[in-house]
Amino acid sequence: MKPELEALLELLDLEQIEVNLFRGVSPDEGWQRVYGGQVIGQALVAASRTVEDINRVAHSLHGYFLRPGDTTIPILYQVDRIRDGRSFTTRRVVAIQNGHAIFSMSASFQISEQGLEHQATMPSAPEPLSCPSETDLMQPYLNDMPEEQRTLANRPKPIEMRYVDDSVEFSKAAKEPIQRVWIKTVDTMPADIRLNQCLLAYASDMTLIDTSYRPHGISWHDDNFQVASLDHAMWFHKPFTIDDWLLYYQDSPFSGGARGFSRGTFYNRQGELIASCAQEGLIRLYNEN
Fold first, then answer.
1. Which of 38, 104, 205, 252 is the catalytic position?
2. 279 labelled catalytic
3. CATH assignment of 3-111+132-285?
4. What is the pLDDT of residues 225-263, one digit of tens each?
5. 78 noted as active-site residue
6. Which residue among 3, 184, 205, 263 is least crowded, i.e. fewest CB within 10 A of its CB?
7. pLDDT one-digit tens code per residue, 117-141
C-alpha cells in the first residue's frame, strides 16, 4: 500500500483507552486547526467500534462542529450507546480537547434489508483521467506560494481528485454554485464496508463548503474571508469501496447570513448513487477597510 494511504488509515485507526473511549491524533501538516473531515471520520470509527454486530453498518450521521480542533494535542472520542434495537443501533459521539467538546455527532447503524428502490440519475461528466488533477490546477500558482505552502501542496496525497469544473482554490472568477469532482484512493482499499464509509466521510468535507462561495469570486486564501464547517450530515445508501472512481456532485442552493449551504451526492462508475451529504458552513467576509 502506498505510504500516504497507509498513513491516512493509521490516522483513522483510533486507540481504545477505555470502554467507549478512544483517542485520535492529527497529522503534522502545518494547518492552524484540525481538518473537519478528519474529525468526522474518526468519530465514525469510534461509533462503529462500539457496534459489535458487524452486519450493522452506518446509514446516516449528523454532526456539529463546536470549536476549532488543535492539531498539536490528541482528541478524545467518547461514545454513548444510545440504543441497540432489533434493526437499528444508535450512537452519540463527542470529540473532546482540553476538557471541551469540539464536535458532536449522532450516527445510526442498520442491518442489511431489502426494500423499495429508486434513485436520481447520475449527472453527466467526462471520464476521470481526462480531467485535470489537483496538481495540474495548482501548477501555474506554485511559484507565487510561500515555500511552506508549496511544500504542503506538493506532498503526495492519499485521495486522488480530478476536477470536472475549475476549483475556487486557484481561480477567483465567479462560477456557478455547482461542481463535479472525481475522487478515489491512490491504492487498493480493504473490503471492510465500515472502513470505506469512514474514509468517504473523511473525503466528503474536502470541497463541499467551496461550492457555496463559487458564485462570489472569492478564495479561502483571502485574508478578509473566514471559512469553517458548522455542521455535516451524511447518508450511506449502498456498500462501496473508495478505491475506484466516485463522482462527487455538489451544489449550493443558498448562501446568506454569513452561511453557505451545500449538498453532495456520490455515484460509482456504474451510475449507482452510493451516498449523499449536506453541510452548512461559515463563509464570513470582513470589510477590508
1. 205
2. yes
3. 2.40.160.210
4. 889 999 999 999 999 999 999 999 999 999 999 999 999
5. no
6. 3
7. 999 999 999 999 999 998 888 877 7
HEC profile of the chain: CCHHHHHHHHHHCCEEEECCEEEECCCCCCCCCCCHHHHHHHHHHHHHCCCCCCCEEEEEEEEEECCCCCCCCCEEEEEEEEEECCCEEEEEEEEEECCEEEEEEEEEEEECCCCCCCCCCCCCCCCHHHCCEHHHHHHHHHHHCCHHHHHHHCCCCCEEEEECCCCCCCCCCCCCCEEEEEEEECCCCCCCHHHHHHHHHHHCCCCCHHHHHHHHCCCCCCCCEEEEEEEEEEEECCCCCCCCCEEEEEEEEEEECCEEEEEEEEEECCCCEEEEEEEEEEEEECCCC
For 86, the grid coordinates are: 432489533
Question: How far, in Å, CA of 97 to CA of 74, rounded?
Answer: 7
Q: Which is the catalytic residue, given 167, 262, 276, 279?
A: 279
CB 21 within 8 A of CB 76: yes
Q: Is 229 known to be catalytic?
A: yes
Residue 145, pLDDT above cutoff 80: no
CB 58 within 8 A of CB 194: yes
Lowest mean pLDDT among 57-66, 157-166, 219-228: 219-228
Instruction: Write down the catalytic residue from 38, 229, 250, 252.
Output: 229
